[in-house]
Specification:
Structural class of chain B: mainly alpha
Structural class of chain A: mainly alpha
Shape of chain B: elongated
Oligomer: heterodimer
Order of helices and strands of chain B: HHHHHHHHH
Distance between the termini of chain A: 72 Å
Helix content of chain A: 55-70%
Largest sheet of chain B: none
Shape of chain A: elongated
Distance between the termini of chain B: 46 Å
Largest sheet of chain A: none
Largest interface: A-B, 43 and 60 residues
Amino acid sequence: MTEFHFDSTDRPDDLTDVDRPLESPLRELALASLDPPASDIPRDMMWARIRQQRRAALPAATPALIERRARFRVTRMLTGAAAIAATLAIGVAIGRYGRPSVAAPAGDVAAGAPIGDGRAMIPNATQSTAPAVVAMEEHLANTVTLLAAVRANPTARPAADASNSARALLITTRMLLDEPQLTDARTRQLLQDIELVLVQIMQARGSSVPAARRAPSETIRETNLLLRVRALVTASASPPAEESSLRGVAE
Amino acid sequence: MTDAELIARLQAGDAAAEREFYDRHVDRVYRLVFRMSGRAELAQEWTQDTFVRAFDRLAQFRGESALSSWLHSIAVSITLNGLRTLKRREARTGSMDEAASVGVWARDAEPDLKRRLREAIDALPTGTRTVFVMHDVEGYTHEEIGDALGVAVGTSKSQLSRAREKLRTALAPFARQELA
């Protein structure tokens, strides 16, 4: 039972009620002094966080993830060739063009952006300081280190800190998946692939089965996840094209 | 949808019912937590915790009290425990009875009377302040307060009387000017 501290002169057995209700002006003043700020109650944000907290409390391998993993195994052979072609296209585009295009229209970003323009995957990314965009960029930067470490040691059991990092990153990934600003299909697919790998890392930590330990690196390799995340991290770290060109002219 | 229908759908795992339940109660829970804690970020966090715990414990809800009373008892419990944790973290000595202020309102240029009233409310012992906020501010009955806090109705009444007496005393210098 919750312990409560009451007035030291409390006599709980004194049921005499000679109390007068607060005068109306005083009660109104009390209401006003205790009221929340005028800004709206952040209902949607709190609901998103409630869902995220409940999801984070679920067992790591939810039925949805198991199903997605199975679907992924069936289709990976069919998409392997396409993935290699996409990888080459991304590499060529990054090397040749280097800088993202400026101020893509919000509605056209997802549909019309070239595959090599990493920042185009994040709506309004070129000039946006929207929290969701900033959070996405920071999250990808944090994720790439872990993915690179896992990829470099494909059969090793993840260290405790790697598993802990995966757990923390998983919470953020799921929060971003709930973020209404991030609706682009490719962005969501990227986040879902990251989610899958993070769950696999956590499972590999607690497993002695070789297949479970190989799963994260296999998924990273077969979805080109590390390359896709690095492309976005690189693109988001680059200044806009005209800024660089102007700088070059001024110098 | 009645409470009974809503509970049945919630216990069956209906996602739409979960959102319905949340929408029905979030404003009152948030206001209650905010008024007890005095800080928006704490109100958000503990409101979220209230609903997470409520969803986790739905299977245990037996309908012995109204759904709103049950939910608000969770909110009160989480808020009071949170305030205690906050106080320990801030390394204050002594019990919460001595805390001059745990909730902090960062507002500028408040009228003196409102500020004095807020300080007087904040200076009340935890349980006394909770009874006052729940009854005079949030409109709970003594029976509902007793259920939520695990105290007798008589205790709730006497604590409310003490709270009112202390607030009137604190505002006595203003009485002629502001309350006439």
